[in-house]
Design brief:
Order of helices and strands: EHEHHEHEHHEHEHHEHEHHHHHHH
Radius of gyration: 20 Å
CATH class of the largest domain: Alpha Beta
Strand order of the largest sheet: 1-2-3-4-5-6-7-8
CATH architecture of the largest domain: Alpha-Beta Barrel
Number of domains: 2
Largest sheet: 8 strands, parallel, barrel
Strand content: 5-15%
CATH superfamily of the largest domain: Aldolase class I
Structural class: alpha/beta
Number of helices: 17
Distance between the termini: 35 Å
């Protein structure tokens, strides 16, 4: 696959502690075409940690991207090679996370202050693999948030071989705000991302930040090459059920919420047989019935029963019985 050829009209953001393999398998039952991302994995963890646990996935998760955290070009190149050998569809470099822990490792949003280093990292990965190498970034950091500085950053990193940028349309404060506050307090500047696309028409520019439904998504697409949805897709995952029909040309009726859980049961059973605790899986599905009668009973039943020793798929089946079956049209 040539760099940049991956269909990326819609994607679900990499989210630490959330987009693990259980979450991704669940989301894949809602949408076949939306690009999914792993949680961020550091280069040190890939090279020296439990690689199988960190990087293994089910082939049904494709299209799937690995997000890396790191700033050493040689290490990133080695990790990209590992990702390619494992058939990941893309490797993404995190240049957007503002947490103190990430900064202490010299990666994430603080790298916006070192565009030449980011360019070197991209170039090293591009030299190592043929799959797309992408960068997820912010529109600025601290007081370095002028449009001129953003253009300089994107231009230098693009010169290193990056043709695809996912841009969170907020600046990041590297101190003084928590990661949660950095997702909420700096104002969204979609206009900056639109201008970036106009000034770099040859690049693929993906907009991220604040998108919560399909209508907002549709509004953005004429301005940019794609959108990345974050927490809304986790907290209200059924919004993804219409993605394939709305944006990817599918003619199939979206599955009902009950049907999605029934389809998920074989995977859950398989994971339980491998020793995975049930609540490690079901914590990702609590929002499935968001806005539907019975949603609170669903969440409460799962929260009260899935942590118990020996809990199996019968708990999920019992939880489903707490929610009335509605037509797909009503559910949507």
């Amino acid at each position: 696959m040539e760099p940049g050829k991956l269909d990326r009209l819609i994607s679900v953001a990499p989210m630490l502690d959330w987009t693990d393999r259980h979450c991704r398998m669940f989301l894949r039952l809602l949408t076949r075409h939306t690009l999914l991302y792993t949680e961020m994995v550091t280069t040190g963890a890939v090279l020296h940690g439990h690689r199988e646990r960190l990087l293994n996935y089910d082939s049904a998760e494709h299209p799937l991207a690995l997000q890396l955290g790191g700033s050493h070009p040689a290490d990133l190149a080695r990790c990209a090679r590992i990702a390619a050998d494992l058939d990941y569809d893309e490797v993404n470099l995190n240049v957007g996370c503002p947490s103190d822990r990430v900064q202490s490792g010299r990666f994430g949003a603080c790298l916006m202050a070192e565009p030449d280093l980011v360019a070197d990292c991209v170039a090293a990965m591009r030299a190592a693999v043929d799959i797309p190498i992408t960068v997820k970034t912010r529109i600025g950091i601290d007081d370095r948030d002028s449009y001129i500085e953003l253009v300089d950053f994107v231009g230098r990193v693009a010169a290193g071989g990056c043709g695809i940028f996912i841009v969170h349309a907020r600046k990041a404060w590297l101190s003084g705000l928590s990661p949660k506050e950095n997702r909420e307090i700096p104002p969204l500047r979609y206009d900056v991302v639109y201008q970036l696309k106009r000034d770099f028409p040859q690049l693929t520019i993906i907009l991220n930040g604040g998108l919560s439904d399909l209508e907002q998504t549709a509004v953005q697409l004429p301005q940019v090459d794609g959108v990345m949805i974050g927490r809304a897709a986790y907290e209200n995952p059924y919004l993804l059920a219409e993605m394939d029909r709305r944006f990817f040309g599918s003619v199939q009726q979206p599955p009902s919420r009950h049907a999605i859980i029934q389809a998920f049961l074989p995977y859950v059973e398989n994971q339980l047989q491998q020793g995975t605790p049930l609540n490690s899986i079901t914590r990702h599905i609590l929002g499935l019935f968001q806005g539907i009668p019975g949603a609170r009973a669903w969440r409460r039943f799962l929260s009260e029963h899935t942590h118990r020793r020996g809990a199996g798929v019968e708990v999920l089946e019992a939880a489903l019985r707490q929610v009335p079956i509605l037509s797909t049209r009503t559910e949507s």
